Predict the 3D structure of the following.
Amino acid sequence: MTTDNTQSETSDLANPSEAVRPDDLRLEKFLPYRLSVLSNRVSNAIADAYSARFDLTIPAWRVMAILGRFPNLSAADLVEQTAMDKVAISRAVSILIKNDYITRSEDLADRRRQVLNLSELGRDVYERIVPLAQQYENDLMGSLSTDERRQLDSIIEKLMARAQDWANRGLID
Amino acid sequence: MTTDNTQSETSDLANPSEAVRPDDLRLEKFLPYRLSVLSNRVSNAIADAYSARFDLTIPAWRVMAILGRFPNLSAADLVEQTAMDKVAISRAVSILIKNDYITRSEDLADRRRQVLNLSELGRDVYERIVPLAQQYENDLMGSLSTDERRQLDSIIEKLMARAQDWANRGLID
DNA sequence: CGGCAGTGGTTACAATTGAAACCAATCTTA
DNA sequence: TAAGATTGGTTTCAATTGTAACCACTGCCG
């Protein structure tokens, strides 16, 4: 209940029988809204950069980012690592294979699984994208002080945890 | 199952400054990625809450949020206020009208424009949603200290500005 | 006036996304 | 070892979203 009430008079008590008018919602200060706008701006800019240079969507790029670090994953492993869902992974993978950016091989031990890896070409692209991605991040972070970066990191963790709770425990009532 | 590092050829052994291999990108620490996950989690939870109770999508709710504060806006005004695009607004508006949540009247001065307002019913709903939205925000913010809230506010502003630059000035090269 | 560029807003269509059904392989247990 | 339950992954179909074309009106300039 600590919504910073920048409204002139915030006397909760001082409201007689008059129709109880709720405070207006100031969308431009509403965290979920701001997060959404910020995230979209950032994502769109970066998506443009990736697709202009490498013909990669963000989901596809994410898959490559993970495979670059952790070879021999299955699609299910990717789901776990990326917070993307099954279907998105499946689609990204199939595009990446079509582009010869990754390879898919059967897992002999479990013939349902398919082991994914960057191809030569894929690793090549990976190694060119990583710096690009880092450049974007550095540019963003460049607008923050060292302190602010630390703060942001920890704040995001906390918000993430809380939002995760919502998903688990169900909605607020 | 963290996999074995199968990078035979890329001269691991040559630790000297022969940095052939770029640092891996740690997706889970990559700001654009984290923002996206956080924003999606938050938005989805809230979207569920709105739609479960009021059959409102987020775009529609945003339109109502703005109209609640600023009556007599046109669709173009809404575009400006919400950072949503023309089409999204148009669609949200048409749904809201169908639901009798808002009214649309001709602007006599300029017959292209249409003046939008919450209807009685709409204001009713608005007044019930605002607290709900605030509850979600408070719950999120509840995981942060007062300091952190201030910090977050200012950090978001900075990031937003930087991301905005990207859109204006074109991509990083 | 008459033409034409610019605005407000909607429509049409393509691309993206999500939910659920689905197939195939594996694991369980009996 | 066969039946059912589970897991890995893809396909299908509907809903959402983005882009571009579009219509109606206004405003401007000749």
In short: The helical segments of chain B are 31-54, 58-69, 75-82, 86-98, 120-141, 146-169. Chain B touches chain A through 75 residues (CB under 8 Å). Chain B has a mean pLDDT of 86. Residues 74-76, 86-87, 89-91, 93-94, 110, 112-114 of chain B lie near DNA strand C (CB under 10 Å from a C1').
